[in-house]
Structures are given as structure tokens and as C-alpha cells.
Amino acid sequence: MCVAAPGKVIEINGDNVVLDYDGNRVSANKGIVDVKIGDYALVHAGLIIQVLPDDEAKFMLDLFKDIEEL
Question: With 0-12 CB in 10 A as exposed, 13-18 as middle and 19+ as buried, what is 19?
Fold first, then answer.
């Protein structure tokens, strides 16, 4: 099983995208997914697999923070 956390798109250079994960920058390929700066996205194996609505991404981020506190 793989769990993906949402990262915020902060840079786009062609097909290469940089996402911010709470201060950590991660590179990924956007493939055929349409993303823009400011979007939250899920990445698997270095490829963006889904763009999330802001409210869903923030819900997931809050959930992960709650789990970390356990």
C-alpha cells in the first residue's frame, strides 16, 4: 500500500514540477495532468497522479498532522 500526501506546486518548468511538502522541495513529472502554481497534487513514483481541490488537500494535511501527534 502507498500513502500519498498532498504537496503544493511552487514551480513549473516544462514537464518538471517542484512541490513543497512542509518546507521540503520535491521534483516530479506532471505527465498528462494539468497543474498550475498553487495547486495541491498527489505524487506517486515521481509522477503527479492527481490534482486536489484546496479543501480536500487541507483536510488531508490536517489529518496527517493529527496522526503524527498520536
Answer: buried
Residue 2 CB burial class (10 angstroms; 0-12, 13-18, ≥19):
exposed
**What are 11-67's pLDDT values in tens digits?**
999 999 999 999 999 999 999 999 999 999 999 999 999 999 999 999 999 999 999
Which of 30-49 are b and which e, b meaning 16 or more Cβ less than 10 Å from the residue's Cβ?
beebebeeebbbbbeeeebe
**Among 56, 64, 20, residue whose Cα is nearest residue 38:** 20
